[in-house]
Amino acid sequence: MQQHDKLVMMANQIAKFFEAQGEVRAVPQIAKHIQDFWDPRMRRGILEHVASGGAGLDPLALAAIRKLHPAPQVSAHQA
């Protein structure tokens, strides 16, 4: 299993859950769920995957992830 496969699977499951609401309502809800419940490393990982093409992502998940802001990097002096 590749590094991003699990994140893709999880994002697609979230998209499937919200898809009945229709794209206009589902996309912001998917983005909010990922922003609120995924840790920064997971968000960075899925953003990297999207930056490299986003293979395997449900179209709703892909649209939602494109709305996410990159997770802040923790520098050595902040830790």
- The total number of structural domains is 1
What's the helical proportion of residues?
Answer: 55-70%
What is the structural class? mainly alpha
The parts where pLDDT drops under 50 for at least 5 residues are none
Q: State the helix count.
A: 4
Overall average residue pLDDT: 90
**What shape does the CA trace take?**
globular
Tally of strands: 0
What is the ordering of alpha helices and beta strands? HHHH
Beta fraction: under 5%
Distance between the termini: 31 Å
Major sheet characteristics: none
Could you explain the architecture of this structure?
- The chain is an all-alpha fold and 79 residues long.
- It has one domain (5-65).
- The chain has four helices and no strands.
- The protein starts with a helix and ends in a 14-residue tail after the last helix.
List keywords for this structure.
mainly alpha, 4 helices, globular
List the helices and strands and how they pair.
Elements: H1 5-18, H2 23-37, H3 40-51, H4 59-65
Helix pairs in contact: 1-2, 2-4
Give a quick summary of the entry.
The protein has helices at residues 5-18, 23-37, 40-51, 59-65.
